[in-house]
Amino acid sequence: MLHFFFLKKYVGSALYRSGRILCTICILCIGLSCPANAHATSPPDTIGSPGTAWIRLSKDGRHFVQGRAGQPFVIWGVNYDRDNGGRLLEDYWLQEWNTVAEDFGEIKQLGANVVRIHLQFGKFMRASGQPDTIALRQLSRLLRLAEKTGLYLDITGLGNYHKQDVPEWFGKMGEADRWKAQAAFWKAVAGVCAQSPAVFCYDLMNEPLWPSSKKETEWLAGELAGKYYCQRITLDLGKRAPEQVAKTWIHTLVSAIRTADSRHLITLGAIPMAQYFPGAGLTFCSPEVAKELDFISVHFYPDGKDVAGQIRILKTYDIGKPLLIEEMFPLKCNIDTLNAFVEASRTVAAGWIGFYWGTRPDEYPKDMAGALIRSWLAYFRQKAADITGSANPGSGG
């Protein structure tokens, strides 16, 4: 999630300390100079509403298609991971439902067709095998909102972004019990979502990691402004190959989902390590590890210095399945360069997902931070029709 952890540690202090990176850190992660949210306050199968036409893979397994007719579907979406004050969705979706509903309306007006939401493990599981019924009911409500608004959901799970919300019992678990609890989470979520055409996909976890050589002691990593966007799937590889551990972990979670939902697509939000370590392997995105995933998702923030080089790196993740850029933003480049990257990646990418934090463009202050966000949102809106072919009209389930 906005790879500052890797930028700071691996890309180099000069780049990390540059004015653009520091400016973006303030905007994206701390909310500096951003206003408070100004809005705090089972559907018919109707042809014409995008939320009623199921998404699936094309016959050749290379693209996404929509509805019975198999109309091509290109993703142009946003991460709705937090509001501009840093609150996660579960922090306000019970008390401020109108905020969520208005935000979805604004996302639709921006021209998006997919919203990536991030569900926190601790908000959905009361105990290892005991889901929280209130959270599941609210998720069902969100599905109905997505159906009504005509938006699809990329449901990313197992989040522990706020360390203080991680259940004590979960933090003390060993690998086997932890995987079992994670599987229970996904079985419960899939049980709620199985019949909704508004679900685009399940994303097993945001940016999972495995230890390289030494034994680790902490499950969470990638801390940024009080949030932990990365998790390890094991603390100790022992004598096991990391690829086999990752494959087994994916199988455990996919199997849990498939007991409740045999239809919706499954992916995993991966860090493209080759972007930061030249010659690095594909890790979670390799053909063997990702065998049970329906498509590949990478979080790719293009470097403005070499767009062609970035495309070459991106193409290494094309393993014969749809390739979704699940996170992007002008983090290390300007809007023109980002657009050049999007255009150049159209031959390989099946879609792009940026960011929206619940604030309309005209609500941002007229300073450098506000100008950056406004330029991003203006670009996103302007580009939407070109990417999606206007509205991706539904054609029935």
From TrEMBL:
Full protein name: Cellulase family glycosylhydrolase
PANTHER family: ENDOGLUCANASE, PUTATIVE (AFU_ORTHOLOGUE AFUA_5G01830)-RELATED (PTHR31297:SF41), GLUCAN ENDO-1,6-BETA-GLUCOSIDASE B (PTHR31297)
Domain Glycoside hydrolase family: 93-305
Native source species: Compostibacter hankyongensis
Family in the record: Belongs to the glycosyl hydrolase 5 (cellulase A) family.
UniProt signal peptide: 1-38
Cited SUPFAM superfamilies: (Trans)glycosidases (SSF51445)
Keywords: Carbohydrate metabolism, Cellulose degradation, Glycosidase, Hydrolase, Polysaccharide degradation, Signal
